[in-house]
Write a structure and sequence with these properties.
heterodimer, A: mainly beta, three-stranded antiparallel β-sheet, 0% helix, B: mainly beta
């Protein structure tokens, strides 16, 4: 079965750039989406179809996808961005989520 | 305003059944695919099942092995998940999620979840 691999944790200082990777076989040939989940809340879509930012999502969130890796980038990271982040893709008509990355802003 | 409200969760014994419902409002329900995604306590997101706008496509996670059945009633703006032969490992918060498209893209709105606890 298809797998998406994310680092368990990423740390970043306020105002710096955070990058979270998501790896999967030939992921660049699929669309990758990203979700933010804060403690006790439902997930929120922050990047759709590799690099599209849904309405209401700050411009500091961006995405890319090429080869075997999709990347979520948060520029000028703020304390409010501290959360778990999940990548998601489709494979053979099945939805796959990555294991999630805990972003710590310190 | 898009709203997704799950119901039907609770405590159930292993081997028993439970049916979750999701009441949708604020959008044209029969224009979009819908999904169930679960999250075990302290764990990550796991897609459970999805259904296209007209039920022409239905998909399930391989791990479910035919125990769960998804359905929808477009006349009632409702999504359902019938869960049979429940196991302890099915304990999770079950989210109803709206797809951005009619057959499967990604999930732009989520409910607050229905907690299912499988325990004797």
């Amino acid at each position: 079965s298809y797998e998406l691999t994310q680092p368990p944790s990423v740390s970043v200082s306020p105002g710096q750039t955070a990058s979270i990777s998501c790896s999967g076989d030939k992921l660049g040939y699929k669309f990758a989406s990203w979700y933010q989940q804060k403690a006790g809340q439902a997930p929120v879509l922050v990047i759709s179809e590799d690099d599209r930012r849904p309405s209401g999502i700050p411009e500091r969130f961006s995405g890319s996808n090429s080869g075997n890796t999709a990347t979520l980038t948060i520029s000028g990271t703020q304390a409010m961005d501290e959360a778990d982040y999940y990548c998601q893709a489709w494979d053979s008509s099945i939805v796959v989520f990555g294991g999630g990355t805990k972003l710590t802003v310190l | 305003e898009v709203q997704l409200v799950e119901s039907g969760g609770g405590l159930v014994q292993p081997g028993r059944s439970l049916r979750l419902s999701c009441a949708a409002s604020g959008f044209t329900f029969d224009d979009y695919a819908m999904h169930w995604v679960r999250q075990a306590p302290g764990k990550g997101l796991e897609w459970v099942s999805g259904i296209s706008w007209n039920s022409g496509y239905i998909g399930y996670a391989d791990s479910l092995k035919g125990r769960f059945t998804i359905s929808r009633d477009n006349a009632k703006n409702s999504l359902y998940l019938q869960m049979n032969s429940l196991r302890a490992e099915d304990t999770a918060l079950y989210y109803c999620a709206k797809d951005r498209g009619n057959s499967g893209v990604d999930f732009d709105y989520w409910g607050q979840g229905a907690l299912v606890t499988v325990s004797s």
